[in-house]
Amino acid sequence: MEDDAAVWRRLRAGDESALGDLFDVHEARLFRHACRLLTDREDAKDAVAVAFFELWRKRASVRLVDGSPLPWLLTTVANAARNLERSGRRYRALLAKTPSASVTEAPSGPDESGVLAALRKLPAGEQSVVVLSVLEGYAERDVAQTLGIPLGTVKSRLSRAKARLRDEMTAMEASWT
């Protein structure tokens, strides 16, 4: 089996089958990541699809880390997930304003308490850094390269995010007593 770097060279050269090969290798991990960020499995599938379409479209400018587009794909899935959540909120708000004889409430997702709910409350920049460095285990240097930001920015965002998450979890634990 080819490594990501070899498949990437084929993809950059316009080989569409290389996109399928990358999809086969990374789809499951990206789907798990999307499921962490979204309550609806269909939206998670859409976020993964969007990431691969964007990978193909932007293949000339994608930043690789250690020869792999995975960190870029993880970030793109997170961005697509935020966009899907935002559009879903707008759609539900529009439905709520629409006059109807029998208004039905939008289905509610699973309980949004816990670490993932706290993660979703973080600003997008901090969320991306936490996902790549803490959840996915990439080195801060690689996170900086993937996001196109200085290493110091990664460190400060990670520090702020950890403090916010710690405060959120402390508040949550206090509510249990």
UniProtKB/TrEMBL annotation:
Tell me, what is one Gene Ontology molecular-function annotation carried by this entry? DNA binding
Q: Which residues belong to any copy of the RNA polymerase sigma factor 70 region 4 type domain?
A: 115-165
Q: Which UniProt keywords apply?
A: DNA-binding, DNA-directed RNA polymerase, Sigma factor, Transcription, Transcription regulation
Q: Which PANTHER family match?
A: RNA POLYMERASE ECF-TYPE SIGMA FACTO, RNA POLYMERASE SIGMA FACTOR HI_1459-RELATED
GO annotation, cellular component aspect: DNA-directed RNA polymerase complex
Q: Which domain of life is it from?
A: Bacteria
Cross-referenced InterPro entries, in alphabetical order? RNA_pol_sigma-70-like, RNA_pol_sigma-70_dom, RNA_pol_sigma70_r2, RNA_pol_sigma70_r4_t2, RNA_pol_sigma_r2, RNA_pol_sigma_r3/r4-like, WH-like_DNA-bd_sf
Q: Which SUPFAM superfamilies match?
A: Sigma2 domain of RNA polymerase sigma factors (SSF88946), Sigma3 and sigma4 domains of RNA polymerase sigma factors (SSF88659)
Q: Which family does it belong to?
A: Belongs to the sigma-70 factor family. ECF subfamily.
* Any Pfam family matching the protein: Sigma70_r4_2
Note the Gene3D superfamilies from the entry: 1.10.1740.10, Winged helix-like DNA-binding domain superfamily/Winged helix DNA-binding domain
**UniProt name for this protein:** DNA-directed RNA polymerase sigma-70 factor
**CDD domains recorded:** Sigma70_r4
What GO biological process terms are annotated to this protein in UniProt?
Answer: DNA-templated transcription initiation
Q: Where is the RNA polymerase sigma-70 region domain?
A: 22-90
